[in-house]
Amino acid sequence: MSQIDYAAMTDQQLKQYFLEHRNDKAALQAYLDRRNQRSKVVITTIDDPDFDQKIQAAIEQQISKSL
Predict the structure, then answer these.
(1) How far apart are CA 32 and CA 59, in angstroms?
(2) Cα(17)–Cα(31) distance, rounded to whole angstroms?
(3) Which helix (H) or strand (E) holds 36?
C-alpha cells in the first residue's frame, strides 16, 4: 500500500478522504491537526450589547460562503 500524502490534500479533499476511509487513524489525526492549527476568530463576547447582531451576521456570512 502506498503512503498517502495528507499535506498535499486540500482541507475538503482530506475531509472527504477521511469520510471514505474512517478506519484510517492517520487521516483523522492529520485532519484534526489541520483544524486545530487554524486561528480561532472571536465573533463577540457574551456581554457585548450587539451580541445578537454579530452572531446573525456571522451565520449569514457562513451561509453565503457555502453557496
Answers:
(1) 23
(2) 10
(3) helix 25-37
**CB 65, CB 48: distance < 8 Å:** no
Mean pLDDT of the chain: 91
| Domain containing residue 11 | 6-66
Total number of domains constituting the chain:
1
- Give the Å distances, CA to CA, from 57 to 44, 51, 61: 11, 10, 6
Residue 1 lies in a domain: no
Q: What are phi and psi of 12, to 5 degrees?
A: -65, -40
The span from the CA of 60 to the CA of 53, in Å, is 11
Q: With a threshold of 0.85, does the pTM exceed it?
A: no
Q: Are 24 and 15 in contact (CB under 8 A)?
A: no
